[in-house]
Design goal:
The structure holds two protein chains of two kinds.
Chain A (H helix, E strand, L loop, with lengths): L18 H28 L15 H7 L2 H34 L5 H7 L2 H4 L2 H12 L4 H8 L10 H26 L2 H9 L4 H12 L1 H16 L3 H7 L7 H10 L6 H28 L22 H27 L17 H8 L1 H33 L6 H9 L6 H14 L10 H11 L1 H14 L2 H9 L4 H12 L1 H17 L15 H11 L2 H26 L6
Chain B lengths: L4 E9 L6 E10 L4 E5 L6 H9 L6 E6 L2 E5 L4 E2 L8 E3 L11 H11 L4 H14 L15 H13 L5 E5 L7 H18 L2 E6 L2 H7 L2 E6 L2 E6 L1 H6 L4 H6 L3 E11 L3 E5 L5 E5 L13 E7 L4 E3 L9 E11 L4 E7 L2 E7 L7 E5 L5 E3 L3
Parallel strand pairs in B: 3-9, 3-10, 7-8, 8-9
Antiparallel strand pairs in B: 1-2, 1-4, 4-5, 5-6, 10-11, 12-13, 12-15, 13-14, 15-21, 16-20, 17-18, 17-20, 18-19
Helix pairs in contact in B: 2-3, 2-4, 3-4
The chains are: A mainly alpha, B alpha+beta.
């Protein structure tokens, strides 16, 4: 026997230091710091009477009494809630209807539509808002055409305009959750209803839709939370007509720069965080109460598709119309605009084709840098981020570390932080903490802020995959002589490779289209595509914005196609 | 120097509830022996095994192999699994899906940074031992269940551990294959002479393979003895009931002498019971006691009452045809009884003999 047992004398005490524990501690500390870093200056500032960098600040409730007694704040709050609720309802109905028609009926072109309706999911809301303005805004291509036909037109710059565009943006959320829930549902449940005498249509209404409830509730609350903090659509559509939501309100006062209202900004920010925390908590509660709808999954039997008969053409027509008017035409407008000197229905675009818009972007160092920065962030920061999130998920679900429960909560908590508030928090923290101020306006700071903001996304993209891997696999590794870290490296990470890759692509796309988290962190040389687009938009040039939008969409499309073809990554089940 | 596996005072409490997963388990597995932890699910057998492996941390107790101490809570010592040098086969086999058979088996040796020649040779030996040396280039999903189970075993023994832990390794196999695997596994264990702890809820497996069986229930060790003793002299009611098909009869002690006890049933029928299996117990006249009897030991008398000792009257309440035999549920003055017979019994009333040496007195 050559076993090491004989060479090992009786160990008297466990080794004090283990790399395993060190790594687990590092995960906990980094997660904690990431979450606390932007949060503390906001909390602190909201109770101080002067901006934090001034001397002689004193404790006060004044910021809150000031805000809460300001009728304007209440007006904005109610407006925000109304907007968020309305767009959630509209997006929910459209998303569920699409999910059922596309997954459960024999309508034509199902696969085709299934891909098209998810497009907004991959497009920045900034681009979508811009696209709708290009098409349906007061001077939009479509609006002008309709006006020329002497048909009454609409006002996109209005409450309902904002609601409709936001709903368009959120439809894929409900659609994707409802579709994956439909894919998992046990066909036997529907068969049982059919045998019980229910017609196919009735089966869908009484069995299929009720079984979707967890997915509906989950995606509705996700939409609601996201809509509450949505900046770009209300900003682009509402700013010129004086419509304000909480995030545009924060943006407007925050952008003015150094101002004595910093306490009020912090107080509003904290109130928003509390509001969103409440929503996130509600989401968790409702979802766990909905466990009774969880059916025994994993059945390979596919349910029979509902025969729509003569209606299938009608349904396909309306879904096609929705996709065309809501997604394809506005985005096509943006792409076309980026290649012409001026987009108008009265000019033949082929005669005014130009690459000047792109030249303008690539010849201006600031704009070129923004594109390069965005690409770098979405390649490198997303890689570092997903690796950290994977290790955090493994610490949370696959270690005996005492703080593992805390990791779960901390990693998911940034969901309660709107991007713009993360941005303000990071800015203040960089200003206030000595020694790191020089990082403030670098893409490193922006990368850290993005990773913090998307911690929940990456963490919850990887967690289900971790939970699906039998823990006997890592136990077997440990018994075979591997430390926890060796088990992670040689066994779990290789097995989780597909989940990590698709998480990576998801994160890279999110980083590419993110702008609100970067708003207050960018400066000369550290701009990203989204912030540059906003800046150009304020300057009033539609064509350069169109060029940047097209570049962003092209990179995203390239990422998705490359990951599908080369890596076999599926972003959704 | 002996390398017995010694478990002393092993206790594990769950942090979340007041209940105890295992409580004060003491076991010595002699070097080279095959010991089975047997019990219903939730009895603590897997927790005990995991504590030995280091996969769970006990609240109290010590575990060592010879003088290699792996766990000693009194000294605050709980070695992590990777420092215990054990081999283990899991219920799902836990073959790493991204590694070929060769790499699965070689993993432990690679971690020990053995030279690659040695790794190749030892992996080959291990795979030859389980008869799969030709499959080293396959991935686990390309193997049958039985083959996967054998790869798992090869992986567990490749680093020549002192103790092999097996967590229900046969439970995922088809019934037919399982019986062959039993014989094969026991043969292999004897060939290697490796100390083995085996966890199962299947009695047949336990009896077929073990040198010693530890019956567990509710986190406690109920009896630790060789298979014959477990069957013939169960230590208590739980063991008697859990093992085999057992019925219980209750009566009053009428007479106690040096050799036997006489039990009087409610009907006045008398049962003589040999005391040899419980010489240590004190029995008093007038005590109400239950006794156990294995259903296959009951003899059915055809053709009316007989003068044989311990003949009692019974009434058939229920009969089930099982193909190879009949199973009857009968009512007697001492309670209901299950019995098995290869013959069909006609009529509802019968006489039966409970041989004095087959009735089991239970320690209360």
């Amino acid at each position: 026997m050559t076993s090491a047992v004989q060479e090992t004398p009786r160990p008297l005490a466990p080794k004090i230091f283990r790399w395993d524990t060190a790594l687990q501690w590092a995960v906990v500390i980094i997660t904690f710091v990431l979450v606390i870093f932007p949060a503390w200056p906001i909390v602190y500032q909201s109770f101080m009477d002067k901006p934090l960098y001034e001397k002689d600040t004193a404790f006060t409730f004044g910021n809150y009494t000031h805000i809460l007694s300001d009728p304007h704040f209440w007006h904005v709050l109610i407006y925000t809630l109304a907007f968020a609720v309305m767009s959630t309802i509209i997006a929910g109905f459209i998303g569920i209807a699409l999910a059922i028609f596309i997954n459960r009926t024999n309508m034509p072109l199902r696969e085709f539509f299934s891909n098209l309706v998810t497009i907004p999911y991959y497009v920045s809301p900034l681009v979508l808002a811009f696209a709708w303005i290009e098409m349906y805004g007061p001077q939009g291509f479509g609006t002008i055409v309709i006006r020329a036909l002497r048909i009454p037109t609409w006002q996109l710059y209005s409450f309902w305009g904002i609601v409709v565009v936001a709903a368009m943006y959120y439809v894929p959320y409900t659609f994707l959750y409802a579709s994956s829930s439909l894919a998992l549902a046990d066909a036997q449940l529907e068969s049982a209803a059919r045998i019980g005498g229910a017609s196919p249509f009735r089966t869908i209404l009484t069995i299929t839709v009720p079984l979707l409830r967890p997915a509906i509730i989950y995606s509705a609350l996700l939409t609601l939370v996201s809509a509450l903090e949505l900046l770009s659509i209300p900003l682009l559509l509402g700013n010129s007509v004086g419509i304000e939501t909480l995030s545009t309100y924060l943006y407007t006062i925050g952008m003015v720069g150094v101002n004595k209202d910093q306490g009020a900004v912090a107080a509003v920010a904290l109130l928003v965080v509390i509001l969103v925390t409440g929503m996130v908590y509600l989401q968790g509660k409702l979802t766990s109460m909905e466990r009774r709808f969880v059916t025994v999954g994993g059945k390979a039997t596919r349910p029979k598709l509902l025969d729509l008969g003569g209606w299938k053409g009608v349904v396909a027509f309306f879904i096609g119309l929705y996709v065309l008017l809501g997604i394809i035409l506005p985005l096509a407008c943006v792409v076309l605009d980026s290649f012409v000197s001026f987009l108008s229905p009265f000019m033949n675009p082929l005669k005014i084709l130009t690459l000047n818009n792109y030249r303008g972007i690539f010849d201006t160092p600031a704009y070129r840098e923004a594109v390069v920065n965005s690409i770098n962030i979405s390649i490198f920061a997303a890689a570092i981020g997903i690796l950290f999130m994977a290790i955090a998920a493994l610490t949370a679900y696959r270690s005996s570390f005492k703080g593992r429960e805390a990791v779960k909560y901390m990693a998911l908590y940034p969901r309660a932080f709107p991007g713009i508030i993360v941005s303000i928090g990071f800015l203040w923290a960089f200003v206030l903490l000595p020694g790191i101020g020089s990082l403030r306006n670098t893409i490193i700071a922006i990368s850290i802020a993005f990773i913090m903001r998307y911690l929940p996304l990456g963490f919850s993209a990887i967690s289900p995959a971790v939970l699906q891997v039998s823990d006997e696999l890592d136990r077997a590794g440990r018994v075979a002589g591997a430390t926890w870290m060796q088990t992670i490296r040689h066994i779990l990470l290789p097995i989780l490779r597909p989940a990590i890759l698709s998480g990576y692509i998801l994160l890279a796309i999110s980083f590419l289209k993110e702008y609100s988290t970067a708003l207050f962190l960018v400066s000369k040389g550290s701009n990203v595509i989204g912030t540059t687009m906003l800046e150009l938009w304020k300057q009033g040039g539609a064509e350069p914005v169109a060029a940047l939008s097209t570049i962003q969409m092209a990179i995203t499309a390239a990422l998705i196609i490359a990951s599908r073809k080369l890596l076999g990554v599926k972003l959704h089940e | 120097m002996n390398n017995d596996l010694i478990i002393e005072g092993l206790t594990k409490k769950f942090a979340t509830s007041a209940s105890v997963a295992i409580s004060d388990v003491n076991l010595i597995v002699k070097e080279g022996q095959f010991t089975t932890l047997l019990g219903p699910s939730g009895c603590g057998k897997s927790t005990t095994l995991n504590c030995v492996a280091g996969l769970e941390e006990p609240t109290a107790g010590s575990i060592c192999i010879g003088d290699f101490v792996m766990t000693d809570t009194a000294r605050g010592l709980i070695l992590p699994p990777e420092q215990r040098h054990l081999g283990m086969v899991f219920q799902s086999y836990a073959l790493w899906p991204h590694m070929k058979v060769f790499d699965n088996v070689a993993f432990a040796l690679k971690l020990q940074k053995r030279p690659s020649d040695e790794i190749k040779q030892r992996v080959h030996e291990s795979l030859a031992l389980v008869g799969l040396e030709d499959l080293s280039d396959r991935y686990p999903f390309q193997l049958s269940g039985g083959q996967q189970q054998r790869v798992a075993l090869a992986r567990a023994v490749v680093s020549r551990p002192k103790v092999l832990l097996l967590d229900e390794p046969l439970s995922n196999l088809d019934a037919k294959i399982r019986e062959n695997a039993r014989v094969w596994l026991r043969g292999l264990q004897q060939q290697l002479g490796i100390t083995t702890v085996y966890v199962t809820h299947d009695q047949a497996e336990a009896f077929a393979m073990s040198d010693m069986i530890a019956v567990m229930s509710m986190g406690k060790l109920q009896q630790y003895a060789p298979p014959e003793e477990i069957y013939e002299r169960p230590a208590n009611r739980f063991v008697a009931e859990f093992i085999g098909v057992t019925s219980f009869i209750t009566g009053t002690i009428q007479k106690v002498d040096s050799q036997q006890i006489t039990l009087k049933l409610a009907s006045g029928e008398l049962l003589n019971i040999h005391k040899e299996n419980r010489p240590d117990q004190k029995w008093k006249q007038g005590d109400q006691v239950p006794v156990a009897i294995r259903s296959e030991r009951v003899e059915v008398i055809s053709g009316g009452a007989s003068s044989r000792e311990n003949t009692i009257k019974a009434h058939i309440a229920n009969r089930t045809y099982l193909g190879s035999k009949w199973q009857y549920s009968v009512e007697t003055a001492g309670g209901s009884l299950r019995l098995e017979s290869t013959d069909a019994i006609h009529g509802d009333n019968l006489f039966m003999v409970l041989p004095p040496d087959s009735i089991i007195l239970l320690a209360e």
